[in-house]
Amino acid sequence: MAKKKSKRAKTAKKKSTKKKSSKKRSSSKKTKKKSKKKASASSASAPTPEPEDEEVDTYIFCRHPKSKYIPRSVSWTEFREGLVEQMRFHQLDMPDPAQKTEIELFAARLDKYLLGLGYAGTEGARYYIRGAVGEPTDPMQNLLDVVAENYRP
Amino acid sequence: MKHFEPFAWALLALGLLALTPSPALAQEEGEVEESATRAAFAKIFGFSRHLRLEPRAVSTTGGDSTVGLDFEYKRRFADPAERGDVDLYFEASGFLAADEAVSPERQLEGKLRLHVIDLASHKRADDFQTFVDPESDTSYRRLPEQRQIYQDPRLKQVRGLYRKYQIADGDEERRKFFNQASLLWWEITGEELTEDDDGFWPELDAYEGDWMEKESEFRKGVSMPWFSLEVNAGIETDQEFGDLQYVGGARVYGKWATLGVPVDFLLEAIRGYAVPRDYLNYQGGPYLWAGFDFVDASENEARKAVTGNSDETFGRFSAGAYYRNELFSFGEGEEAEPVALELTWEFYAELDAPSAIRAADSDQTSFFKAAVIFEDGLFLEYKDGRKPLDLINTSAVALGWRFGF
Question: Does this model's pTM top 0.90?
């Protein structure tokens, strides 16, 4: 698991009761957030911080005409604030081997796409992506956190 | 009740294992207390987070009917290999019927599954440049620049503007990013860049789509197969635990779109357009799986009644397929209401089955399901055949809605 961790991801993590059961971290391995982080949420209303580039690229990939993991009409906000259930493979009544295949393919394709955009990804990135999209009731933010933590420019 | 005892112990053991948080839970500085709290909550309430329920009414062609609940429970453990291509699960699934006697699906399952993903490995050593980030001591992979989507810095700029466009606040800001990108695109390609109502830039999407087609490990001119291996161990039972079997085995599962081309063409001809309008019907398979199980049926009463308490252990071959595509569509454009066709087939064969099993026509069983699914989740389903624990072949028609909790 990548050791870099964004401030936004940490904020989201604290707000969520979701366990990141897939994440191996220790205090000795912790690193600072990415230096390219663009926004700071300072107002009382706690506006949503700007996303990492790779998070938006994840949204673009999911909606891409060659991928179609989500409906084309889904906005960035709807995607980010929604649940994993909006993914195609959770909307279908697929038998177990078929759904597992589709989740594996999703992780591999997203990984390859992000690498294709020039990001560097951790060895275990696909494992964490599969974990983040495996349960339909999990927030999509988990996937975005996993991507932010496992890919870097 | 004597049959319940081993099942209860097995279920209890697996259940405890499943509800125990992974040792690799996030334990960041300053979050230890919070993680412990979350872990405690997970033990108590975590169950529902991995539970899918699907109520349905079922009628058999024999005139019987019942209601019931499809369920599926999953628990995923930490990556044993830490390489990204191994998964370990506990899973339970099945159909709980109000009247099991008329239920077309009696089989419940609970299994531990180990997955080794992508057997036709695409991760050749020369695919990636690797480096270690000294600050975090983390190993990273990167595609060589000549294999990346954007090699021209100006194209990268266009892609950066597309990213900003997607998350921009308001039309004015979006217009600003699009205009900048449009000028750059014209300079690079000599062609016009357009945008559509859903915020896509078709020319840029097509450029990335070409890369996906050419460079992806899944499509090198033709669709490449994707296969993984599963090793599993667990139980199969009816819902009253009278017919219980211990099962261990392995199977290969995956997807190979090329095999579905004839059916794709047929459905394309029926609906009269090429690309499915509903994203749910896109890239629908076929998905395939096949494997071998070793079965201990010493507590399967229905089987023992047939075999006379002999041949309680046996080998079993299984295979299956799933395919989904768009059948037709009511209406056009935004008014379109696509209708999907979904096909599922499963086959089981007991190897070297005893004569009593063969005489009872239970050495080979198969199960077929065809469903027509409307956009709002309403489905009409036809089933025929049986799974290994079902006593008789049943044909049934079911009408219901699909939704999950």
Answer: no
